[in-house]
Please model this.
Amino acid sequence: MHATKLSPLTIVVNLTVLLLVALWTLPTAGLLISSLRDKDQIVASGWWTALTTSSQNGIYRAPPASAQVEENGQFVIAGNVFDGKGGTVSAFGININKPADFEPGAVAERNDGSKLTLQENGDFRLESPKAFEGSRGDRIFFTSAVPPRFTLENYQTVLNSEGIGKSFINSLTVAIPSTIIPILVAAFAAYALAWMKFPGRSILLAVIVGLLVVPLQMSLIPLLKMYNGVGAFFGVPAKGYVGIWLAHMGFGLPLAIYLLRNYIAGLPREIMESARVDGASDFEIFIKIVLPLSYPALASFAIFQFLWTWNDLLIAMVFLGSGDNELVLTGRLVNLLGSRGGNWEILTASAFITIIVPLCVFFALQRYLVRGLLAGSVKGG
Amino acid sequence: MEQLFFAFLTIVIGVAAAIGYFYGSNLLLDMIFPSRIPDTARASENLRKAALVRPWLFLGPALISLAVYLVYPLFSSVVYAFLDRSGENYVGLANFRWMIQDGEFRQSIYNNMLWLIVVPAAATLFGLIIAAMTDRIWWGNIAKSLIFMPMAISFVGASVIWKFVYDYRDAGSEQIGILNAIVVAFGGDPQIWIALPFWNNLFLMVILIWIQTGFAMVLLSAALRGIPEETIEAAIIDGANPWQIFMKIKVPQIWNTIAVVWTTITILVLKVFDIVLAMTNGQWQTQVLANLMFDWMFRGGGDFGKGAAIAVVIMIMVVPIMIWNIRNARREMEGH
Model:
């Protein structure tokens, strides 16, 4: 199967895979690149042009009349339309309908008798024989070539003012206990189902397999009612972290028990039996033998559960409040999509913050993730 | 800072409570039925009694939460489907009657069918193609990682990513969404993709296909590698071309895995609502059952009866898969 010479088929295969990989990575790459671009550039040009100099139309408002100085009988207002950020003017104008009437360096005559000159580097000079008036400066229209510029400004903005930073911590508060507690509970249950003899074992197993496919939606309304009831009874808020941990545990358990039982049932019988002969109780066997031997399965489920709880939107929206102290990243992102739908600098940076943690987990622990997938699904087939 | 501390504290308490339960309850059981005592007859009697109780100590928390979070709601939802919006008065079949007459519900059912046909088929097909191809090239593992990557991204994050791909600007101005940029580059007119009835459904499905193809690829690639070399070698000797080997030798042998992948994605499709919520919230004829249900739970203060009735419909669609799953699992248990 390993072709060493370059047959036509190999070339076609290589090119096709290359194309597919490009299709699968480009959307994410676009988001990442955009999140690092200047916010004016994001809306002015596509992210794929990020490395080239882009041409964009700008409007600059000159300083008000109070900034004028008198030079040789002329009143002058001068400055730079780029505010020092750099750029190259390719054309300019004095009328919004004709923003590219003049070459850089040319002198544009305006209706009130004043003259405007705009140099290539952005320096402008407004000259008039009579004094400028008014508290608002005149507008200068120009077309400029803007060099590529990358910045972390968007990230600073969303972390400080859009509540993303706070939601990041909320998401962690939801995801970490929701990962650890179910693993512990499922591991004990899986051991009992795999190695302890008791009546009703096979029925229990069938029920758990059946529960694997129950849609979450089935649970929402009764649980919401129950949470409200419990909250009212104890006089505590119905929505909170404990409630969401328990919900994530309940919904994650069928898969956890199923995966872990398959793994634990495959451990060698002799080890358990010799330990039992030595007088170890089930609790000791579990803690000292089964748990250490099950690390690969525990790790793969932990990754799944973490990704699932971190990325969840439904459970968080239903069982956790929408206050600033509870809103998780996915929920915050949905809100931003509604309120800041056009502000791509905020959306791209926020989205990238929400996906950075799962991506790190994914690339670091991919091997375990794949192993867990294979243990769980291929075996059933 | 204060919140970080609170988060850390709650994490510690939560985990400690779980550990405490298992350790404490087993300790208690050993104290009630001590087995390490000089009286051997009583010790073995105690051991037997403890062995009767201990499985339920191990299973207890799992069973209770399964019962509370999955089994009880299953029955309870069916009951709520026959109650009014507050979930208190019996209204008979009114919710279901409303459902059949509701245009939005019919739209959702229709769209759901479309999703159920397109997404599992496309994801499985792409997964199969990519699995077969990446096995033949030296950088196959890198390619697989990159295609698998969207699995880690939340549906909401993926929605933002693709909303950016589909972004629309007026004709004439520079497009920043890559799809429209390509269309314009080829001389077409920019389109508001997600507001284009019927086609917008497909554009939303692309997101889920993009996420799920990696999952299908991983499973199918493992299954392809599990095919015994001899069958393939025999086919090569008999003069079969690569296409024939793939279609007639490999695919039939991994049929079981294809079925598992297909059903897993089907179940997921039924549950997914995040993508529709984030992209269109059901506007422009893209509503699906899961989002419609969510809508009714909260719209106008919430209608638990209608919400539950929609949930029941989703459940009914899952039942055949559930039965198939259990049957498969039982067959496998007997095989052990």
Notes: The CA atoms of residues 74 and 129 of chain A lie 5 Å apart. Chain A has a mean pLDDT of 83. The two ends of chain A are 26 Å apart (CA to CA).
